[in-house]
């Protein structure tokens, strides 16, 4: 019997502070007793069935040992609380509306004041109609698992009325579910939720709300079956369940009353709902209970200091490294070689490449630095375990007492830029007080200069340092001419650098081999290691292959690739027919790409929610990881602002769980693919052409601009998606006219707007090239270019940056093409903004562009935004 835990991820919006000390809510004082055996009208079979169920429950409770499964403290300051809502399906519509619209928003606001992200897990709404029994059971119980994984003893809310709920038949519950959750025969799903989420562990964070049955007298007869189970077995089951809960949780059971709103009938699309009144007391009791429970669990959160973003980045990367390192099997020889190199030795069998020969008259740019020790480079195809090996050497070097700087590209949402990498390295080597500056991510000059500063300091210090850089082929702008221009050919004194990349990006490989470098060949894993990987991967789920199947799998041409083996084991684990398992192994694809493509095809084909393909596309198309808090909306219908049911996403997430990881980023959690190979496979299969990429970028942009209420998320991500979707007019309008634009830095705004500019070159004083003119009125006006309401005549005509006349400003020019469109020229000049003739306006002025928008290349381009 396995009691491991789980839940849905996410976080929510910024809200104001509230409350201090809360009075404990009023408890239920009356514990009614039910003598089952006095009910002579009930059959003996019903009584025996119920007695058998509770006998099994009592046995499980006696044998139960609480397992410590709470998620370890990430050190990032924020906590996550997952609150599971349990009830029967059709009779608690009104209470759930109150919870969603009143209770949870206030509780979420209260939590955020304490640096706690609240995620409610309400799976009763929107469970797909065509879900199988197994899918429904797994979805519900695995969400309780996730709650338990996050919080140890899960925060659990149960609503009880006069329905016991659906009782699956023996055949409805698969054997693995029976074993994992200690399934009690002849019990309902709601009963099992209570058992797994509260009863068995005697959970102090569980609250039970029992609705008084008096209101049933006002329920129309046609709606009565929604609220009452009249079957003798279910009726007696429910009575005993309520009695047992009151006995086991005397301080955690709350009775509440309500009445039917007889003047109101709420008609839904398919069937009517009964509207209930008088739920204010219910709402307050739920709120008070969980405030107290969360306060008791995380009493120190008000005093927690949030780490700065650099320390958060370091912590998140280390969590990723630890996970990868702990899962590494084999490669002991490679680790020993790398550790020897890190300690200053140079194993004789390491190959030192020659590097490129420079053409006459050319320089490397690093001539000022002498006696540099060549880097150690690991280049191999995806799937051979580069990242796991790099994680292993990182942890082993730390154990050996070495000072290690690590940067694993793709491990966090911020790790994919060279600017982030170099700023972290400067903080490690020079000073932890260094902050990042607004610079162009694609501008090589700044990052190269940063790298040279680091080299100079390292040369003076002479201290030991190991620099570990993993996955540099995943850096943003890897296709630019300046890619890896900041990486020196080596490091001075006792500093050593190990860098890895995949062969799938030729430009990265070319840049890494430009200078002489020690090259470590990452070959096939040994037969013993392959066997260990298969045994360990399947053993986690108490499964194993017979000798014939194991031999067949290990003899496969792709078996030497660790990632291929791990993914295959995951596919074998979920394969239903053991009798056909040998045949499946014999037909496995003969490449990692082929295997992943087949998995993607299977995931989409078996999806009953119609959300799988969209989910994969969203994860692969997200720039900084898919924000968990926005998943339901992003999967929903944007025009109508309709979210998908939580149950749909829970089912999708369960299916793709082996391929994704969730990374905290402040108060937001983000979803990434665990392996880059999976991300590449999804892009190749589902988002392969430019139009598809634009489509998903537009989807993100539409959501962020027209639906999302999180300003910081919008400011951080919307400009990138608008740029990737080539929505130039919307990008310019957002940066220059929206309230968010005022809060975006001048340099950042300028760099985005360069993308919107006409790319035609202009040469002053040539035919058809005209200066951008402003009439006196428009020059004095503050609406036109500046988001901060500066005079147009003193604002850059592109980014709106304020600049006094003559202060690093250059005149703005319009190309012949746009001069013709705008019907303006040097002979018949018109005001750019109001289109009035300015030929005889003595106070007309020439528009200006700032220093940022007039870099050597940009200063020669037309200033019109397309």
Gap from first CA to last CA: 64 Å
Strand order of the largest sheet: 8-15-10-14-12-11
Query: Helix share of residues?
Result: 25-40%
Strand segment count: 24
Please state the CA-atom Rg, rounded to the nearest Å. Answer: 32 Å
Which runs of at least 5 residues are low in confidence (pLDDT < 50)?
1-41, 125-130, 266-271, 438-444
Structural class: alpha/beta
On the 0-100 scale, what is the average pLDDT? 84
Share of residues in strands: 5-15%
* Main pleated sheet: 6 strands, mixed
- Tally the helices: 28
Label the overall shape.
globular
Task: Provide an overview of this structure.
With 866 residues, the protein is of the alpha/beta class. Helix content is 40%, strand content 12%. It has 28 helices and 24 strands. The strands form 8 sheets. A 6-stranded mixed beta sheet has the order 8-15-10-14-12-11, with helices on both faces. The chain has a 5-stranded parallel beta sheet with strand order 2-1-3-4-5, sandwiched between helices. The chain has a 3-stranded antiparallel beta sheet with strand order 16-18-17. Helix 9 crosses helix 10. The chain starts with 43 loop residues before the first helix and ends in a 17-residue tail after the last strand. 41% of the residues are buried. The N terminus is likely disordered.
């Amino acid at each position: 019997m396995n009691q491991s835990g789980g839940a849905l991820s996410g976080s929510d919006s910024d809200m104001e502070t509230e409350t201090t000390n809360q009075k404990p809510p009023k408890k239920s004082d009356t514990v009614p007793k039910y003598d089952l055996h006095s009910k002579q009208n009930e059959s003996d079979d019903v009584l025996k069935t119920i007695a058998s169920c509770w006998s099994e429950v009592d046995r499980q409770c006696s044998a139960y040992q609480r397992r410590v499964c709470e998620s370890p403290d990430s050190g990032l300051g924020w906590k996550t609380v997952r609150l599971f809502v349990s009830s029967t399906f059709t009779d608690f519509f009104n209470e759930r509306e109150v919870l969603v619209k009143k209770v949870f928003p206030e509780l979420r606001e209260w939590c955020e004041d304490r640096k706690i992200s609240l995620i409610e897990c309400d799976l009763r709404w929107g469970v797909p109609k065509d879900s199988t029994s197994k899918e429904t059971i797994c979805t519900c119980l695995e969400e309780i698992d996730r709650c338990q994984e996050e919080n140890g003893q899960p925060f659990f809310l149960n609503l009880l009325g006069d329905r016991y709920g659906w009782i699956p038949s023996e055949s409805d519950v698969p054997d693995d579910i029976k074993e994992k959750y200690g399934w009690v025969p002849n019990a309902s799903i709601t009963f099992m939720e209570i058992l797994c989420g509260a009863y068995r562990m005697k959970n102090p964070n569980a609250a039970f709300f029992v609705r008084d049955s008096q209101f049933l007298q006002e329920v129309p007869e046609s709606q009565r079956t929604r609220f009452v189970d009249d079957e003798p077995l279910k009726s007696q089951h429910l009575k005993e369940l309520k009695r047992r809960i009151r006995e086991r949780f005397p301080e955690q059971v709350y009775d509440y009353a309500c009445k039917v709103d007889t003047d109101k009938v709420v008609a839904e699309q398919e069937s009517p709902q009964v509207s209930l009144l008088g739920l204010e007391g219910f709402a307050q009791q739920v709120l008070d209970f969980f405030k107290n429970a969360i306060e008791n669990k995380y009493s120190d959160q008000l005093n927690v200091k949030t780490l700065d973003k650099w320390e958060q980045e370091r912590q998140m990367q280390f969590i990723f490294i630890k996970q990868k390192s702990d899962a590494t099997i084999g490669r002991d020889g490679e680790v020993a070689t790398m550790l020897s190199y890190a300690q200053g030795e140079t194993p004789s069998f390491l190959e030192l490449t020659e590097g490129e020969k420079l053409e006459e008259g050319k320089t490397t740019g690093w001539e000022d630095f002498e006696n540099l020790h060549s880097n150690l480079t690991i280049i191999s195809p995806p799937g051979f375990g580069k990242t796991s090996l790099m994680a292993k050497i990182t942890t082993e070097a730390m154990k050996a007492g070495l000072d290690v700087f690590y940067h694993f590209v793709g491990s966090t949402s911020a790790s994919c830029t060279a600017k982030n990498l170099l700023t972290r390295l400067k903080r490690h080597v020079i000073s932890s007080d260094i902050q990042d500056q607004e610079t162009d991510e694609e501008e090589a000059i700044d990052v190269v200069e940063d790298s040279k500063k680091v080299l100079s300091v390292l040369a003076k210090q002479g201290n030991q340092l190991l620099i570990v850089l993993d996955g540099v082929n995943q850096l943003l702008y890897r296709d630019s001419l300046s890619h890896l221009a900041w990486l020196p050919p080596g490091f001075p004194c006792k500093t050593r650098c190990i860098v890895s990349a995949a062969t799938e990006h030729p430009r990265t490989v070319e840049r890494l081999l430009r200078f002489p470098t020690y090259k470590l060949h990452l070959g096939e894993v040994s037969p013993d290691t392959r066997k260990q990987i298969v045994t360990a991967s399947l053993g986690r789920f108490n499964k194993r292959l017979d000798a014939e199947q194991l031999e067949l799998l290990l003899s496969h041409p792709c078996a030497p690739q660790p990632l291929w083996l791990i993914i295959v084991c995951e596919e074998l684990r979920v394969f239903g027919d053991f009798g056909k398992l040998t045949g499946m192994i014999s037909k496995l694809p003969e490449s990692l790409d082929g295997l992943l493509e087949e998995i993607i095809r299977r995931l989409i084909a078996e999806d009953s929610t119609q959300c799988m393909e969209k989910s994969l596309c969203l994860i692969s198309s997200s720039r900084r990881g898919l924000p968990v808090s926005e998943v339901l909306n992003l999967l929903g219908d944007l025009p109508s602002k309709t979210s998908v049911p939580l149950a749909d996403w829970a089912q999708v997430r369960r299916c793709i769980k082996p391929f994704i990881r969730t990374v905290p980023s402040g108060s937001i959690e983000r979803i990434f693919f665990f392996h880059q190979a999976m991300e590449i496979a999804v892009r190749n299969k589902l988002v392969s052409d430019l139009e598809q990429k634009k489509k998903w970028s537009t989807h993100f942009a539409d959501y962020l601009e027209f639906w999302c209420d999180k300003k910081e998320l919008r400011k951080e991500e919307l400009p990138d998606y608008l740029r990737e979707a080539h929505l130039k007019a919307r990008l310019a309008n957002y940066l220059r006219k929206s309230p968010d634009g005022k809060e975006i830095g001048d340099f950042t705004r300028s760099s985005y707007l360069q993308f919107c500019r006409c790319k035609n070159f202009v040469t002053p004083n040539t035919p058809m090239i005209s200066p951008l003119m402003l009439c006196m009125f428009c020059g004095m006006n503050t609406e036109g270019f500046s988001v901060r309401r500066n005079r147009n005549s003193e604002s850059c005509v592109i980014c709106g940056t304020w600049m006094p006349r003559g202060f690093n400003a250059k005149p703005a020019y319009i190309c012949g093409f746009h001069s013709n469109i705008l019907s303006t020229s040097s002979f018949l000049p018109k005001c750019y903004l109001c289109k009035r003739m300015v030929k005889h306006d003595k106070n007309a002025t020439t528009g200006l562009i700032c220093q940022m928008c007039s870099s050597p290349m940009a200063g020669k381009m037309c200033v019109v935004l397309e």
